[in-house]
Amino acid sequence: MYDEDDLQEIRQAREEWEDETHSPVLERFGERKDRFATVSNLEVDDLYDPTDVSDLDYGEDLGYPGEDPYTRGVYPTMYRGRTWTMRQFAGFGTAEETNERFHYLIDNGQTGLSTAFDMPSLMGKDSDDPLSDGEVGKEGVAVDTLRDMEILFDGIDLDEVSTSFTINPSAPVIFAMYVALADQQGVPRDEIRGTFQNDMLKEFIAQKEWVIPPEPSLDIVTDTVEFAVDETPNIKPISISGYHIREAGSTAVQELAFTLADGFAYVEDAMERGLDVDEFAPQLSFFFNSHNSLFEEVAKFRAGRRIYSTVMDEWYGAESEKSKQLKFHTQTAGQSLTAQQPLNNIVRVTIQALAGVLGGTQSLHTNSFDEALALPSEQSVRVALRTQQIIAEESGAADIIDPLGGSFAVESLTEEVEEKTMAYIEEIKEMGDGSVRDGVLEGIDRGYFHREIQEASYEYQERVEDGEEIVVGVNKYDIEEDTKPEILKVDEETQERQLARLSEVKEERDDEAVEAALDDLQTAIDEDENVMPAIVDAVKAYATMGEIMDVFEAEHGTYQEKIGLA
Ligand SMILES: CC(C)(COP(=O)(O)OP(=O)(O)OC[C@H]1O[C@@H](n2cnc3c(N)ncnc32)[C@H](O)[C@@H]1OP(=O)(O)O)[C@@H](O)C(=O)NCCC(=O)NCCSC(=O)CCC(=O)O
């Protein structure tokens, strides 16, 4: 953006400033620390100027919003046209309680829904499975059959709201239930809108919730992609998630790199299946974490968009603009919340949410201040939602598109994050002999991702213990007494109520129809057909989550990771 003469002049002026103005003060007073770094330990300079971004090409590297490479945002008008979707993650107890919370959030101005499931549903187990005892409805809503979904969406028109489902190994079952519910409500399948997390690769990398091994898991994910392309064009069948990679302790760069690598692995798998990249890529979506280092986070989001657009074009031959736009949901960093002085979390969440907005997110969840203690109460979830509304309507952050674009510091950090992220992606590609898909599978098998994340996490913890990394209220400014917020408790009778409903459904349904539907699913597996249509039929017959997932487990077995063996 500057020619060599301009840069020369700036370099000279910088030297003069350093000698005459900066050094005397630095020598006299010093700096607060020997080293300044982001929460991911990325060292930052004291001051950035045009020489730090001398190779930045405005047209090629930044461009305009809504245009390739989308560094400045995926939409031409961004939040001036429409603010991001305010999508609070919610779910607990039975479908009735979560339905009530959904209505509460909609009544308070939330613009999208996001469903949290309990552990049995997440793991594809029924509430009456012995392994589910004590977990039913605890950390999210319990869903065993289509009946629960009917209650969960009672009074909510599926053609009027977009819904996100945080569900992974059992995602195909919940996806099938949502489709069945739309059929029941008379809403055409092509009008339902929403997102299924369904990102199995990151499960093997970070969150570690799986039922069957990586390869067949990936195959089923691709079935859902194919089904979504054919039947539900407004559904995002995968939300390729860096959130949990970051929560497991990765750096911002690792979060971006591993997530994009997972994304490219899904792209390659679908292409190997014979799908056209421009047919399915517009339905891919992403999900990132937003942590405390404001500028690093903004740089991460901007770098992510630039890399995605370039790689989709150059490696996979994407032509449609929508195939190259990295659209993402953001959640503020749960791991950064403290149980001590919980009200301080409101401030952390505000900074992290602002980073998401300044970074151009499409959808946002702001954590509630009491989440280090329990599931959010109505009061804390309202404050979290109001935080987004204040950013949107009071701060002015939504009024200028990519307001940090052109900041020497942010542009320089964007380039640095991009470069380091690409180095990781290339390394993963090499592990797979030129295939990112195979590289990711190999990396999982070798425990590569696990080790990389573990090292970063260990380093962070050491910095906290040394006091290099400050956590206000924990290793600095701690106090004895503290506010104890009122916390939400899931009523102990939840499990009984859920079990009663499940046995009622089992009594009322036609067992033969269930058997036949499960046999059809087995046939689809045996004949290597897409399993989604058979799952839709099975849920319509009120087959349970566990019955359907058991078919897959019987076919493919379970998975044991080989951490430490490589
Ligand atoms: C693509 C995203 C990211 C966002 O989708 P949304 O529908 O919300 O937003 P969107 O697509 O950007 O916008 C909706 C529609 O408005 C249009 N639109 C938006 N802004 C526009 C603008 N400025 N100009 C013109 N059009 C615009 C879009 O084109 C789109 O329409 P068209 O579609 O017609 O183009 C999706 O996948 C999503 O909502 N993800 C949410 C994931 C989530 O909630 N996960 C929770 C995980 S929670 C978790 O994992 C738990 C972690 C833990 O706590 O442990």
From TrEMBL:
UniProt xrefs under Pfam families: MM_CoA_mutase
The keyword Secreted is annotated on this UniProt entry:
no
Q: Identify the InterPro entries for this entry.
A: Cbl-dep_enz_cat, MeMalonylCoA_mutase_a/b_cat, MMCoA_mutase_a_cat
CDD domains, from UniProt?
Answer: MM_CoA_mutase_ICM_like (cd03680)
Keywords, A to Z, come to: Isomerase
Domain of life, per lineage: Archaea
**Gene3D superfamilies in the record, alphabetically?**
Methylmalonyl-CoA mutase
Region: Disordered; residue ranges are: 1-22
Methylmalonyl-CoA mutase alpha/beta chain catalytic domain: from which residue to which, for each copy?
Answer: 38-557
Which GO MF terms are attached to this record? cobalamin binding; methylmalonyl-CoA mutase activity
Indicate what this protein is called per its UniProt record.
Methylmalonyl-CoA mutase
Species of origin reads: Haladaptatus paucihalophilus DX253
